[in-house]
Amino acid sequence: MATFLFGERWPCFSRLRDVTVLPDLGYGSMVRYIAVRLLSLIPSLFGLILLTFIMLHAVPADPVTSLAGENASPEQVAELRARFGLDKPLVEQFGIYVWQILQGDLGNSIFSNRPVLEEILARLPATLELITFALVLAAFVGITLGTIAAVRHNGPIDNIVRAVTISGLAIATFWVAIILQMVFSMELNWLPLRGRFDVAYPAPPLITGFLLIDSLLALDLTAFGIAAQHLAMPMITLAIPAIATIARFTRSGVLETMQKEFVDYASAVGYRRNRLIWIYVLKNSLSVVIMQLGLLFGALIGGAVAIEAIFDWPGIGSYAVNAILNFDYKAVLGVTIIIGIIYGIVNIIVDIIHAFVDPRLREGI
Fold it and tell me: What is the pLDDT of residue 21?
């Protein structure tokens, strides 16, 4: 691409060409890489399940007693314990649960008596919508701020961006959520206080599970506006620390790239600075940022637990909170497994995208 844009008389842009052309990855090698990475998730998931199982049973709480009630007789409690298999030794309980997982069964919730997998899948689109749009917002704002700060290095704008990013990392997200609710819901009455959609308006047909996308597919702009209003505050709250992280890594990467020889040469021959920075310098600086996106996805899943509880967002975060409060072992384990699988798959996707952006990683695939 560099040769096409600048001609053979600018050989220094061969570095740009190497990075802007997608790596030539064979279909077979890509499939093998994905298969190996997916297989590598198995021991990680097993360790995650084992650790969570041990921690849950180490808590001095008995869900059966809570479910049976205060007036239940010892015989009734023992009957419930046997029904849920909690009367067996822990090693046997763990073995039975792992065998159920291998069959695609996450068990039934102790309190709702419904399959845990069905309950999680019903709530999963809400969480994925919240995290996806929060990450998109964080990437757009963070990359923009980081690039501007690097271009205005040590200037007033750079100092302001650095102060904002430090504040974004230091401020507790639950405090931000409460402040946003007080200002935009209670005082200004601009945005709904909680929930995912207005119960007084019919929801769009379920297609993707993302209300914003489903509203557009149904050509229902009113539903789109309602979904966007409900999404705004939890999305912004969740995106703030991610914006700060992405901005800091982008700033560092752009500053490093701007010290390269091709940047000096392009500036010397009169190449347009904005195009040079926002296309070539930025593209050569996003390698670390892309890797951070995979880590941030996992962090956002963890942050969504508190945010969903505050905004009454019907996702797996609020489901996990209720499961923990009720000591619902199967529900907590199910959420842990699903989050672990999603996090592992997202990191595989990020690694593949990273390899396409950075050709130095081709040999890893």
Answer: 37
Whether 192 contacts 312, CB under 8 Å: no
Q: What is the mean pLDDT of residues 330-343?
A: 88
| Residue 152 vs residues 29, 161, 170, 205, 262: alpha-carbon distances, Å | 42, 10, 24, 47, 19
* The two three-digit tokens of residue 363, written as one number: 């040999």
The one-letter amino acid code at 47 reads G
State the pLDDT at residue 363.
Answer: 54
Give per-residue pLDDT as tens, 220-250.
899 999 999 999 999 999 999 999 999 988 8
pLDDT at 276 over 70: yes
CB 315 within 8 A of CB 127: yes
Distance of CA 78 to the CA centre of its chain: 41
| Number of other residues whose CB lies within 10 A of the CB of residue 317 | 27
Distances (CA, A) of 177 to 246, 313, 314: 21, 12, 16
The Cα–Cα gap between 120 and 334 comes to 8
Q: Are 137 and 207 in contact (CB under 8 A)?
A: no
Look up the pTM and report it: 0.80
Strand partners, 108: 115
Q: pLDDT > 70: what percent of the chain?
A: 85
Please, are residues 355 and 23 in contact by the beta-carbon 8 Å criterion? yes
Helix axes 116-151, 287-311, angle to 10 degrees: 130
